[in-house]
Design brief:
330 residues; alpha/beta; D-Maltodextrin-Binding Protein, domain 2; 2 domains; 8-stranded mixed β-sheet; globular; disordered N terminus; Bug_dom1; Tripartite tricarboxylate transporter substrate binding protein; BUG
Length: 330
Protein backbone atom coordinates (compact mmCIF):
# COMPACT_ATOMS: atom_id res chain seq x y z
CA UNK A 1 0.00 0.00 0.00
CA UNK A 2 1.37 3.41 -0.95
CA UNK A 3 1.89 6.10 1.67
CA UNK A 4 -0.94 8.25 0.28
CA UNK A 5 -3.32 5.28 0.39
CA UNK A 6 -2.38 4.57 3.98
CA UNK A 7 -3.05 8.22 4.81
CA UNK A 8 -6.41 8.08 3.09
CA UNK A 9 -7.23 4.88 4.97
CA UNK A 10 -6.22 6.40 8.27
CA UNK A 11 -8.29 9.49 7.48
CA UNK A 12 -11.31 7.36 6.67
CA UNK A 13 -11.18 5.45 9.95
CA UNK A 14 -10.49 8.65 11.88
CA UNK A 15 -13.59 10.19 10.34
CA UNK A 16 -15.64 7.13 11.28
CA UNK A 17 -14.32 7.27 14.85
CA UNK A 18 -15.07 10.97 15.08
CA UNK A 19 -18.58 10.44 13.74
CA UNK A 20 -19.27 7.67 16.25
CA UNK A 21 -17.91 9.84 19.05
CA UNK A 22 -20.16 12.71 18.00
CA UNK A 23 -23.22 10.47 17.92
CA UNK A 24 -22.57 9.14 21.40
CA UNK A 25 -21.62 12.61 22.63
CA UNK A 26 -24.88 14.03 21.24
CA UNK A 27 -26.84 11.24 22.92
CA UNK A 28 -25.09 11.97 26.20
CA UNK A 29 -25.92 15.66 25.95
CA UNK A 30 -29.56 14.92 25.08
CA UNK A 31 -29.84 12.62 28.09
CA UNK A 32 -27.60 14.67 30.37
CA UNK A 33 -30.31 14.91 33.05
CA UNK A 34 -32.76 12.18 33.95
CA UNK A 35 -34.63 11.60 37.21
CA UNK A 36 -33.21 8.90 39.44
CA UNK A 37 -36.32 8.44 41.58
CA UNK A 38 -40.07 9.18 41.45
CA UNK A 39 -41.00 12.84 40.96
CA UNK A 40 -43.41 14.84 43.14
CA UNK A 41 -45.98 17.10 41.51
CA UNK A 42 -47.37 19.24 44.33
CA UNK A 43 -50.85 20.74 43.98
CA UNK A 44 -51.52 23.52 46.55
CA UNK A 45 -55.28 23.03 46.26
CA UNK A 46 -57.80 20.28 47.15
CA UNK A 47 -58.41 17.22 44.99
CA UNK A 48 -61.05 17.64 42.33
CA UNK A 49 -60.35 21.27 41.45
CA UNK A 50 -59.03 22.58 38.15
CA UNK A 51 -55.35 22.55 39.15
CA UNK A 52 -55.67 19.03 40.54
CA UNK A 53 -57.40 17.80 37.39
CA UNK A 54 -54.68 19.29 35.18
CA UNK A 55 -51.94 17.76 37.33
CA UNK A 56 -53.50 14.30 37.18
CA UNK A 57 -53.87 14.51 33.41
CA UNK A 58 -50.21 15.43 33.01
CA UNK A 59 -48.61 13.11 35.58
CA UNK A 60 -48.92 9.68 33.91
CA UNK A 61 -47.83 10.90 30.48
CA UNK A 62 -44.88 12.82 31.92
CA UNK A 63 -43.86 9.86 34.06
CA UNK A 64 -43.80 7.60 31.03
CA UNK A 65 -41.64 10.08 29.11
CA UNK A 66 -39.17 10.48 31.99
CA UNK A 67 -38.99 6.82 32.97
CA UNK A 68 -40.03 7.53 36.56
CA UNK A 69 -43.50 7.80 38.10
CA UNK A 70 -44.85 11.29 38.79
CA UNK A 71 -46.78 11.31 42.06
CA UNK A 72 -49.43 14.01 42.54
CA UNK A 73 -49.49 15.31 46.09
CA UNK A 74 -52.13 17.74 47.37
CA UNK A 75 -50.84 20.15 50.02
CA UNK A 76 -53.64 22.51 50.93
CA UNK A 77 -53.90 25.48 53.26
CA UNK A 78 -53.52 29.23 53.30
CA UNK A 79 -55.33 29.73 50.02
CA UNK A 80 -52.57 27.92 48.17
CA UNK A 81 -49.67 29.48 50.10
CA UNK A 82 -48.84 26.33 52.09
CA UNK A 83 -48.49 24.09 49.06
CA UNK A 84 -46.66 26.70 47.02
CA UNK A 85 -44.12 27.14 49.80
CA UNK A 86 -43.68 23.35 49.84
CA UNK A 87 -42.87 23.44 46.12
CA UNK A 88 -40.36 26.25 46.39
CA UNK A 89 -38.66 24.96 49.56
CA UNK A 90 -38.13 21.44 48.18
CA UNK A 91 -34.64 20.20 47.25
CA UNK A 92 -33.56 21.85 44.00
CA UNK A 93 -32.66 18.61 42.26
CA UNK A 94 -35.38 18.50 39.60
CA UNK A 95 -37.43 15.82 41.33
CA UNK A 96 -40.07 18.18 42.79
CA UNK A 97 -42.20 20.71 40.99
CA UNK A 98 -45.76 21.92 41.28
CA UNK A 99 -48.68 23.77 39.83
CA UNK A 100 -49.45 27.43 40.45
CA UNK A 101 -52.44 29.56 39.52
CA UNK A 102 -53.11 33.23 38.77
CA UNK A 103 -53.23 34.08 42.47
CA UNK A 104 -49.49 33.32 42.59
CA UNK A 105 -48.92 36.69 40.90
CA UNK A 106 -51.23 38.65 43.18
CA UNK A 107 -50.30 37.02 46.50
CA UNK A 108 -47.16 39.11 46.90
CA UNK A 109 -49.34 42.24 47.05
CA UNK A 110 -52.20 40.72 49.04
CA UNK A 111 -50.83 38.19 51.52
CA UNK A 112 -49.06 39.68 54.56
CA UNK A 113 -45.68 38.10 55.33
CA UNK A 114 -45.73 35.85 52.27
CA UNK A 115 -43.16 33.12 53.12
CA UNK A 116 -41.57 33.03 49.68
CA UNK A 117 -40.50 35.32 46.86
CA UNK A 118 -42.45 34.37 43.71
CA UNK A 119 -39.56 35.45 41.49
CA UNK A 120 -36.34 34.67 43.38
CA UNK A 121 -37.49 31.34 44.84
CA UNK A 122 -38.94 29.80 41.68
CA UNK A 123 -37.76 28.29 38.42
CA UNK A 124 -40.74 28.56 36.07
CA UNK A 125 -41.12 25.61 33.67
CA UNK A 126 -44.13 26.50 31.51
CA UNK A 127 -47.57 28.02 31.56
CA UNK A 128 -49.99 25.14 31.09
CA UNK A 129 -53.32 26.79 30.27
CA UNK A 130 -55.17 30.07 30.44
CA UNK A 131 -58.83 30.99 30.13
CA UNK A 132 -60.61 34.31 29.94
CA UNK A 133 -63.31 35.55 32.30
CA UNK A 134 -66.91 36.13 31.24
CA UNK A 135 -69.28 38.75 32.60
CA UNK A 136 -72.63 36.96 32.85
CA UNK A 137 -76.02 38.24 33.95
CA UNK A 138 -79.37 36.75 34.86
CA UNK A 139 -81.45 36.52 31.64
CA UNK A 140 -84.02 38.93 33.08
CA UNK A 141 -81.47 41.65 33.87
CA UNK A 142 -82.46 44.72 31.79
CA UNK A 143 -78.98 45.47 30.43
CA UNK A 144 -78.37 43.40 27.31
CA UNK A 145 -74.94 44.84 26.45
CA UNK A 146 -71.95 46.08 28.39
CA UNK A 147 -72.64 49.68 27.35
CA UNK A 148 -76.20 49.43 28.69
CA UNK A 149 -74.83 48.05 31.97
CA UNK A 150 -72.28 50.85 32.29
CA UNK A 151 -74.97 53.44 31.60
CA UNK A 152 -77.07 51.95 34.41
CA UNK A 153 -74.07 51.97 36.75
CA UNK A 154 -73.43 55.65 36.04
CA UNK A 155 -77.07 56.53 36.69
CA UNK A 156 -77.11 54.61 39.99
CA UNK A 157 -73.53 54.59 41.32
CA UNK A 158 -72.73 52.16 44.12
CA UNK A 159 -76.01 50.27 43.87
CA UNK A 160 -75.44 47.50 41.31
CA UNK A 161 -73.69 44.41 42.70
CA UNK A 162 -71.49 41.96 40.86
CA UNK A 163 -70.25 38.64 42.18
CA UNK A 164 -66.96 36.77 41.91
CA UNK A 165 -65.47 33.49 43.11
CA UNK A 166 -63.65 35.36 45.88
CA UNK A 167 -61.46 38.29 46.84
CA UNK A 168 -58.20 38.59 44.93
CA UNK A 169 -59.15 36.16 42.17
CA UNK A 170 -59.50 36.68 38.42
CA UNK A 171 -63.19 37.55 38.55
CA UNK A 172 -62.62 40.16 41.25
CA UNK A 173 -59.74 41.70 39.31
CA UNK A 174 -61.86 41.76 36.14
CA UNK A 175 -64.65 43.66 37.86
CA UNK A 176 -62.37 46.18 39.51
CA UNK A 177 -60.38 46.74 36.31
CA UNK A 178 -63.62 47.38 34.43
CA UNK A 179 -64.78 49.84 37.09
CA UNK A 180 -61.53 51.78 36.88
CA UNK A 181 -61.39 51.80 33.09
CA UNK A 182 -65.05 52.75 32.62
CA UNK A 183 -65.15 55.06 35.67
CA UNK A 184 -68.18 53.42 37.26
CA UNK A 185 -68.99 52.43 40.83
CA UNK A 186 -70.35 48.93 41.41
CA UNK A 187 -70.42 46.75 44.53
CA UNK A 188 -68.26 43.63 44.69
CA UNK A 189 -69.85 40.56 46.32
CA UNK A 190 -67.25 37.82 46.94
CA UNK A 191 -68.41 34.21 47.15
CA UNK A 192 -66.59 31.15 48.43
CA UNK A 193 -66.02 29.75 44.96
CA UNK A 194 -67.58 30.30 41.57
CA UNK A 195 -70.41 27.75 41.87
CA UNK A 196 -72.36 29.49 44.68
CA UNK A 197 -72.16 32.79 42.84
CA UNK A 198 -73.28 31.23 39.58
CA UNK A 199 -76.24 29.61 41.33
CA UNK A 200 -77.26 32.98 42.76
CA UNK A 201 -77.08 34.63 39.33
CA UNK A 202 -79.27 31.90 37.87
CA UNK A 203 -81.74 32.27 40.76
CA UNK A 204 -81.78 36.06 40.46
CA UNK A 205 -80.34 36.64 43.92
CA UNK A 206 -77.55 38.71 42.35
CA UNK A 207 -77.78 40.25 38.86
CA UNK A 208 -74.35 39.34 37.52
CA UNK A 209 -70.89 37.97 38.15
CA UNK A 210 -67.44 37.61 36.60
CA UNK A 211 -66.46 33.96 36.31
CA UNK A 212 -64.07 31.97 34.11
CA UNK A 213 -65.50 30.87 30.78
CA UNK A 214 -64.97 27.17 31.45
CA UNK A 215 -67.08 27.38 34.63
CA UNK A 216 -70.07 29.12 33.05
CA UNK A 217 -70.12 27.71 29.52
CA UNK A 218 -72.75 25.03 30.21
CA UNK A 219 -75.03 27.56 31.92
CA UNK A 220 -74.64 29.90 28.94
CA UNK A 221 -75.37 27.07 26.50
CA UNK A 222 -78.47 26.17 28.51
CA UNK A 223 -79.77 29.74 28.49
CA UNK A 224 -79.58 30.02 32.27
CA UNK A 225 -77.33 33.10 32.11
CA UNK A 226 -76.50 35.70 29.45
CA UNK A 227 -72.87 36.60 28.61
CA UNK A 228 -72.12 40.26 27.93
CA UNK A 229 -68.35 40.26 27.34
CA UNK A 230 -65.16 38.26 27.87
CA UNK A 231 -61.86 39.57 29.23
CA UNK A 232 -59.54 37.71 26.85
CA UNK A 233 -57.68 39.57 24.09
CA UNK A 234 -59.63 37.66 21.45
CA UNK A 235 -63.11 36.17 21.40
CA UNK A 236 -63.44 32.75 22.94
CA UNK A 237 -63.71 29.86 20.49
CA UNK A 238 -66.62 28.48 22.51
CA UNK A 239 -68.38 31.88 22.72
CA UNK A 240 -67.69 33.33 19.27
CA UNK A 241 -70.63 35.76 19.37
CA UNK A 242 -69.60 37.36 22.67
CA UNK A 243 -67.42 40.50 22.28
CA UNK A 244 -64.24 41.17 24.20
CA UNK A 245 -64.03 44.01 26.70
CA UNK A 246 -61.94 45.98 24.21
CA UNK A 247 -64.49 45.45 21.43
CA UNK A 248 -67.18 46.71 23.80
CA UNK A 249 -65.19 49.90 24.34
CA UNK A 250 -63.46 49.18 27.68
CA UNK A 251 -59.67 48.95 27.51
CA UNK A 252 -57.08 47.46 29.90
CA UNK A 253 -59.23 44.58 31.14
CA UNK A 254 -57.34 41.70 29.54
CA UNK A 255 -57.41 39.20 32.40
CA UNK A 256 -57.05 35.43 32.47
CA UNK A 257 -57.15 32.68 35.00
CA UNK A 258 -54.01 30.70 34.27
CA UNK A 259 -52.15 27.66 35.53
CA UNK A 260 -48.47 26.87 35.26
CA UNK A 261 -45.70 24.66 36.58
CA UNK A 262 -42.69 25.79 38.61
CA UNK A 263 -39.78 24.12 40.36
CA UNK A 264 -37.57 25.43 43.16
CA UNK A 265 -34.98 27.99 42.11
CA UNK A 266 -31.55 26.56 41.54
CA UNK A 267 -32.44 23.25 39.90
CA UNK A 268 -29.85 22.18 37.30
CA UNK A 269 -30.36 23.94 33.95
CA UNK A 270 -30.35 20.53 32.29
CA UNK A 271 -33.29 19.50 34.49
CA UNK A 272 -35.22 22.63 33.53
CA UNK A 273 -34.57 21.94 29.86
CA UNK A 274 -35.61 18.29 30.02
CA UNK A 275 -38.69 18.87 32.17
CA UNK A 276 -39.87 21.65 29.88
CA UNK A 277 -39.25 19.61 26.74
CA UNK A 278 -41.23 16.64 28.01
CA UNK A 279 -44.01 18.81 29.45
CA UNK A 280 -44.41 20.63 26.13
CA UNK A 281 -44.87 17.30 24.35
CA UNK A 282 -47.49 16.16 26.86
CA UNK A 283 -49.42 19.44 26.73
CA UNK A 284 -49.52 19.42 22.93
CA UNK A 285 -50.99 15.93 22.71
CA UNK A 286 -54.20 16.05 20.73
CA UNK A 287 -56.36 14.49 23.44
CA UNK A 288 -55.28 17.07 26.03
CA UNK A 289 -55.68 20.02 23.65
CA UNK A 290 -59.13 18.88 22.52
CA UNK A 291 -60.28 18.40 26.10
CA UNK A 292 -59.20 21.94 26.99
CA UNK A 293 -60.60 23.45 23.76
CA UNK A 294 -64.03 22.00 24.52
CA UNK A 295 -64.10 24.06 27.73
CA UNK A 296 -62.79 27.23 26.14
CA UNK A 297 -59.38 26.78 27.75
CA UNK A 298 -56.22 27.62 25.78
CA UNK A 299 -53.16 25.37 26.06
CA UNK A 300 -50.04 27.57 26.17
CA UNK A 301 -46.90 25.44 26.80
CA UNK A 302 -44.52 28.40 26.51
CA UNK A 303 -40.81 28.46 27.35
CA UNK A 304 -39.38 28.87 30.87
CA UNK A 305 -38.04 32.28 29.82
CA UNK A 306 -41.40 33.46 28.48
CA UNK A 307 -43.24 32.16 31.54
CA UNK A 308 -40.77 33.92 33.84
CA UNK A 309 -41.34 37.21 32.02
CA UNK A 310 -45.11 36.70 32.11
CA UNK A 311 -45.16 36.12 35.87
CA UNK A 312 -43.08 39.27 36.47
CA UNK A 313 -45.46 41.26 34.28
CA UNK A 314 -48.52 39.91 36.09
CA UNK A 315 -47.05 40.76 39.49
CA UNK A 316 -46.43 44.35 38.41
CA UNK A 317 -49.79 44.74 36.66
CA UNK A 318 -51.85 43.27 39.48
CA UNK A 319 -49.83 45.23 42.03
CA UNK A 320 -50.91 48.46 40.33
CA UNK A 321 -54.53 47.31 40.12
CA UNK A 322 -54.60 46.24 43.77
CA UNK A 323 -53.29 49.63 44.82
CA UNK A 324 -55.57 51.65 42.53
CA UNK A 325 -58.73 49.71 43.43
CA UNK A 326 -57.77 49.23 47.10
CA UNK A 327 -58.26 45.46 46.80
CA UNK A 328 -57.82 43.34 49.92
CA UNK A 329 -58.47 39.72 50.90
CA UNK A 330 -60.84 40.80 53.69
Amino acid sequence: MHLNERKRGAGFWSAIALGVAMVFSGTAVAQEWAPTKPLRLIVPYPAGGTSDTIARLIAPELGEALGQPVVVENKTGGGGVTGTEAILRSPADGHTFGIIASSYASAVNLVPDLPFDPIKDAQPLTMVTRVGVALITNPDFPAKTLQELLAMAKEKPGTIPYGSAGNGLSGHFSGEAMKLSANVDMVHVPYRGGAPGLNDVIAGQIPMMFNVISSVKSSIDGGKVRPLVVTSAERSKVLPDVPTMAEAGVEDVEIYEWYGLVAPAGIPPEATKRLHAELAKVLKQQAFVERMDAQGVEVVANSPEDFTAFISGEIERFGQLIKSANITLD
